[in-house]
Amino acid sequence: MKKARATFRVRYGETDRMGGVYYANYVAWFEMGRSALMREAGCPYSQLEKDGCILPVVEAYCKYRYPARYDDHLVMETWLTRLSKRDLTFSYRILRDGRVLAEGYTRHIPVDPEGRRICVPSHLFPLLEPYLDISGV
User: What does the alpha-carbon distance between residue 88 and residue 101 come to, in Å, rounded to a whole number?
Assistant: First the structure.
């Protein structure tokens, strides 16, 4: 099973008064990991949307283990834990020096540009299956 990896540094504006990363930024980083996986798989979001498929988030979860701080160099790992015609679940792990700081998932349903539910496009399955781990997060 493949995992997409993205590296980045914590920006000062992402931290709170206590010096840790503000909790909502982790979910924003999940989007960065999801976009990296889709690009790596050969189907960037921009192309998916041109093809008439939008993947809104319908559920999000994040477990915070240790705080990230300003200027930390972080690694985001992203993979899929569900891939079906009706929905997809991306899972994430954020690490600093090999230590898991946070982990979570987002679940998405495919819709057309008018917001009507559709099936996940069939051409995505062979592109995304290498990233699928059904054993969980």
Answer: 24
